[in-house]
Amino acid sequence: MEDNLEYIDDYFQRMLNAEEIRRFEQKIAEDPAFAKEVAFYLAAKQGLKAEAEKEKKERFKQLLSQQAPVVNIDGDRNTRRIWIYRMSAAAAVIIGLFFAWYFLFPGAASSQQMADKYINDNFTDLGITMSSRLDSIQTGLRFYNDGQYDSSLKMFEAVSQRDPQDYLPKKYAGIVCLKIGNYNKALQYFRQFENDDTLYSNPSLFYQAVTLLKRNQTGDKQQAKELLQRVVKGDLDGKEFAEQWLKKL
Predict the structure, then answer these.
(1) Cα 179 from chain centroid?
(2) What is the pLDDT of residues 81-124, one digit of tens each?
(3) Domain spanning 118-246: which CATH class is it, in words?
(4) At residue 22, what are phi and psi to the nearest 5 degrees?
(5) Which of 16, 134, 207, 232, by CA, is between 20 and 30 Å from 6?
(6) Closest to 147 (Cα-Cα) out of 49, 7, 51, 17
(7) Residues 6+ apart with CB under 8 A from 246
(8) Could you report the per-residue pLDDT of 30-72, keeping only the tens digit for each?
């Protein structure tokens, strides 16, 4: 494994040329052992990143605790007041612009905001399963969580081509496309498992609605509304959100 660590690190540091990148990604798709090494690398990297963030927060707390109290000198007080007034004025302008936009264009703002919030809350990081059957999907998820969306999409597409009946790589490929703003392609992937009646919980219609609300082209809002109504009527995945959103659309 040590022999591959430098090779894997070069890939993520973007030190490989186009042909080397192609061979690297092909090796992930074809070599399960190598895919596990890449997954281990990403997991270790994420763990170190989390630890570094923790240390930064602790350091920030220490710096705050070391701040000297404000000296009661007129000059210092006046400087502090000016800074506070400027911050308050800036905040007031931002709040004013937000409410002006919200009340002048309530539909456009709220529909995209709902989609944005759902995407940020649910698709910032994707849960990683530990099943050995899903090694390639695990690697794709780790790519996604590391922000390597292109590599993640290629991985899910490769898995989908190998097993066209499996809805999971299509679902994840659609999520990646939604995350990077390729809404047309996201819709294509989500629609591929819309009629899969073997699924206990099928999020296809709801994900399509989220994508349409986010894309926000002419007719998208109405189409999304119709999909959300089908979700509620069919008691499908995303029903609780659909019920809340329909009240606002």
Answers:
(1) 5
(2) 665 556 556 555 555 554 554 444 455 447 888 899 999 999 99
(3) mainly alpha
(4) -60, -45
(5) 134
(6) 49
(7) 225, 228, 229, 232
(8) 777 777 777 777 767 666 666 666 676 676 566 656 654 544 5
